[in-house]
Amino acid sequence: MKIALLCRSPQLYSHQRIMAAARERGHDIDAINHLRCTLDIASHRPVIHYHGRALAGYDAVIPRIGASVTFFGTAVVRQFEMMRVYTVNESVAIARSRDKLRSLQLLSRKGIGLPVTVFAHRTSNAQEVIRLAGGAPVVIKLLEGTQGIGVVLGETPRAAESIIQAFGGVDTNILVQEYIAEAKGEDIRCIVVGGKVVASMKRRGREGDFRSNLHRGGSAKAAKITPQERTTAIGAAKAMGLNVCGVDMLRSNHGPVVMEVNSSPGLEGVEQATHVDVAGKIIEFIEKNAKPGATKTRGTG
Ligand code: ADP
Known about the structure:
By secondary structure, the protein is of the alpha+beta class. It folds into three domains: 2-96, Rossmann fold, CATH 3.40.50; 99-112 and 182-284, D-amino Acid Aminotransferase, Chain A, domain 1, CATH 3.30.470.20; 117-179, ATP-grasp fold, A domain (Dna Ligase, domain 1, 2-Layer Sandwich), CATH 3.30.1490. It is 32% helix and 27% strand. It has nine helices and 16 strands. A five-stranded antiparallel beta sheet has the order 14-13-12-15-16, sandwiched between helices. Helix 2 (70-82) links the parallel strand 6 and strand 7. The radius of gyration is 20 Å and the shape is globular. The chain starts with a strand and ends in a 12-residue tail after the last helix.
């Protein structure tokens, strides 16, 4: 097969591993910087120009689109879909997963366990929002944040209110969530590939930090998950329509609750913690599923 890996930094561990896994299995794989693609959408035959040539002959695309370039990145994925090239995660599903609020709404519709979450645009009713989220302590999140940036703990009603008002001052969208104290700064990340959990790890925040993101100095080790956690992770991936994703959950005293579903999960932490060849699982999934025109949306979404 000829595979396109859409990414900006081919030297990153995850991308190196995906390319190595594809080559080990006898495939051709090219790293294509989606930001350097030019989309020709005026003609009946959609074309992607890249470094002065038209991209052709690809059987599958692995999109690794960074959160800051979702708009253009998903347009490139959509163009591949219009060219009837199979994509591991479809453009619509990637765009969906990038919108925290929309993701939570989709998950809630499917009955997936979630922390109590309240979203409001106006901040004049901060007290009401805190009350609806179950009262302080609450977690306040910027809708646009990633890697734990913009996730703040409002420990007391006063602190929570000031944080909500401060975010209101810069006119940004936030959501306010029940604080799952019993998770004790730990979360579970399951990597789902093709409707199966292939690897799971437990992440723990830096001493004194309730956020367990590895980018924030957290550490990871392999985790044994419960059947309920497995079902939740698979259900979340399905609700989002993602074939490959990382599902982040907290162990709450009302069962597993999903915080986020990530369409380009980093592989370094999870492969090192679990010794699972996640990159290989992704390539094997493509081998089984990539057929011309096998995307459902084909750029119409
Ligand atoms: P990001 O998308 O920026 O990573 P998350 O929503 O995943 O933001 O939050 C970052 C970290 O903060 C999580 O991994 C988790 O450890 C912690 N966290 C987030 N929400 C809650 C919550 N409601 N209760 C307890 N801890 C939380």
